[in-house]
Amino acid sequence: MGKSLTAPQNTGATARQRCLQPSCGGIYALADRVYVCSRCGGPLEIDAPLGVATGDPAALREKWRLRAASPDAKNRSGVWRYREFLPLDPDAPVTLFEGNTPLYDAPRSAEYCGIDVLQLKHQGCNPTGSFKDTGMTVAVTHAAMLGAKTTICASTGNTAASLAAYSARARFRCAILVPYGQISSAKLAQSMDYGASIFEVEGNFDDCMRLVQELGGDPAIYVANSINPFRIEGQKTVVFELMEQCGWRVPDAVVMPGGNLGNSSAFGKGFNELRDAGLIDRVPRLYVIQAEGSAPFVRMFEELGPHPSGPEHNLPETMIAETHPYTLATAIKIGAPVSWKKSLRAVLESRGEVIAATEQEIADAKAIIGREGIGCEPASATTVAGIRRLAREGKIRCDENVIAVLTGHLLKDPEYVSNYHRGTLALPAEPEGMRRERRIDGAFQNCPQRVAANKSAILKRLESREA
Description:
Elements: E1 16-19, E2 27-28, E3 44-47, H1 57-67, H2 73-76, E4 103-105, H3 107-113, E5 117-122, H4 132-146, E6 150-154, H5 158-170, E7 173-179, H6 185-193, E8 197-201, H7 205-215, E9 221-223, H8 229-235, H9 237-245, E10 253-257, H10 262-276, E11 285-291, H11 296-304, H12 340-350, E12 353-357, H13 359-370, H14 382-392, E13 401-406, H15 414-422, E14 426-427, E15 438-439, H16 455-466
Parallel strand pairs: 5-13, 6-7, 6-9, 7-8, 10-11, 10-13, 11-12
Antiparallel strand pairs: 1-2, 1-3, 4-5, 14-15
Helix pairs in contact: 4-5, 4-8, 5-6, 8-10, 9-10, 10-12, 13-14
């Protein structure tokens, strides 16, 4: 059996799982293995009143700074270092020393977007190459504390790789459900190498997610998708690390990709908690960018009208899913995102927005990011593509402080990169015949050149390229 679950002493009250539906009020203990409210089916959130909210923010910042130099395993983790804001404080968390990711200046990307300054928070520098690790360390630690033996997730690749790695670390049996033929071979290779049982489902991600939710009813199985509120707790610590890197100066806007929407949900929660604790004085505008062919959240946001907010607004109870999501940015090829309610709340409260980027915009933005010497997977590049559009529309001013979140590493999808630069990148025709193949002509192609084996041939090509 797992250890008993109690909240850290510094929370000032027992942490709990709470239904987000105002009319429901469902409350569950940390040890209750639930992923949605059993009363109404609504999403759950960890509610942990924080004792630090009445403490000294400067002292807490200094404590975190000193922990970063500590050899202790919990302090070396860029998640557990901020444990005052986590619902769990185990002696030995399941960790691969996640977090601690860089914040890069990106002058070429800023110029491309038409703004003065842009920074890139690269979550692809996590142990398995994506932002998923920051949430997975908390979820798998929770599973261990509950005494679970089997973990499961639906995935377009990154969640699978992360869960497989952390489950291997915890010696759990791990089951991965992926849509057959729709994820990068590099991501699939990670899950294979980490020893997970991989099931290629004849359907899309949403079919996989439905099956996971059905299997999650088995008490022996622990679901690790972002529907699990403990995942969000880990992912919110990215905000704490980001603010440390910014010297606790809040940016004007933070922009991130939108897939299953757990990341934007976590950022909203993290910024709100830092503000409530007096560590920052305001929350930045949060922007979520989806791919044009996989944009159910965009359509729902547009139907709400301009910046609805407050309990008086009649927010939707359901989302109209995209039946056939269609994009080469496979990490966000999701038609029915499970965390949309949390993400919507975060965007609306911050006065942000949700928009879509075309495949061409995503591909070219990715190439520009590459010219910074920074590699990312296609889904990450939706951020720069979105910032460029938002700046052109006057929604982001050129003098504002903007941060884009890169969610995955370049090597998550090397085939995309090669096809872009060789001029062979294309959206394939769908089996249903709903969409025909569409070629993407990259504006920044950099195809290898064949030359004779002599010095003059190479110099001639270099001079030609310089000209």
